[in-house]
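Re-run requested by the PI after the first attempt was lost when the workstation crashed. Everything re-entered from the original request form. Ligand of interest: alpha-D-glucopyranose.
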Amino acid sequence: MSLGRRLLGGLLALILISAGLAWSQLRAPEVVSILMAAPFADATAPLVERFNQEHRGRIRLSITRGPRDTESISDLAISSLLLGQPPYDALLMDVTWLPKYAEAGWLEPLDPWFDDSDLATLQDGANLGNSYEGKLYRWPLVADVGMLYWRTDLMASPPETPEELVSISRELQTTDQAKYGFVWQGRQYEGLSCDFVEVLEGFGGQWLDPSTGEPRLDSNAAIASATWLYELINSGISPKAVTNFAEPESLQAFKAGDAAFMRNWPYAYAELQKPDSAVRGRVAVTTMVSQSGEQPTATLGSWGLSLLNDSPHKSSAVEAIRYLTSEAAQRERFLNQGYTPTSAALFADPELVAVSPVLPDIGRALSVAVPRPPSPLYAQLSDVVQRSLSAVLTGEQSAEQGMKAAQSNSEVILQSAGGQA
Ligand code: GLC
């Protein structure tokens, strides 16, 4: 080949290479869309920005900010899944959604991307509710567990039994040291089911019988639990308005110094330490009271990321999931918003414990946390419990009537689905 031809060939190759490079730079990045409840979308925004800078030209992560309540955002996700071709690649899912979504075939197993060494990093409790029928479908973003907050300036140690919680509250209220005893989530929504699971466990009951899967909502323990909650309101230990309280309203009342106790999730601790908090530096956490006084009781919460099996961007979506759930991301979310990490190593991390001395208590609560029934029918079962409890709390029905109705309505739901929880 002559020199001229060789030079021409080289030039041509150079032109082709640089055109290819320019083309790949011009090519639009793969867009990965994730639906998240508003508080998590907000908490994740700085990480998303950083991800997009680091993956410029290749992947663009876009978060859809959905409603706050678990039921509303699940309804939104389900309607788009039922319409087909949902606009999302992944969803941030509450722990209770997974059986239904997995059973419906909407989720892609994550097993090809996460192995036993990943699972081994998780804190006890954060490793629950991520799998269904032996497949991993969700990777946890934040761990969550129900806690009892108590005022260290009003008592030397927290109550251990329901009776103690009541008697300490009465004493503080009659001596004008506290306006209310106990604030919690009494509105008719998922938070009420969460509170109920803790109280029920504390009274020695269970929502579903673990061996048969049948409801146990008319048991003595369930009736005693509903009675106790009603009496808290009836006796003024909890404000009447508690029947309209979700997490933010309970937090607001406790933060203003209006109550001796609060049931809430761990994120509330960071909020209580802010300069505008009337109880800053005067709050500790423990697990909810139980009748034996010995057995800790706590409802398992948590939110995790799941991949939709229709996603055309699976590996990029997993890259984003890994980024958002990395130890560095967990640390940042904990320090900035108080969201509980999922990695066991972080629960003993000196920097995190210095900022939040309650972190080891949260870790202990997670290791005893009780899941809500892991059933594809959970949303219906929970709705029945919420309706009945709400009728009891507002005095429309007695605890016995309410829990009997919850029992028979739950039986109908399970029977019409073939007796399977
Ligand atoms: C928290 C929990 C979640 C629960 C919800 C109820 O977000 O993590 O599991 O369903 O509260 O309000």
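Saved to the shared folder this time. The chain has 16 helices and twelve strands.
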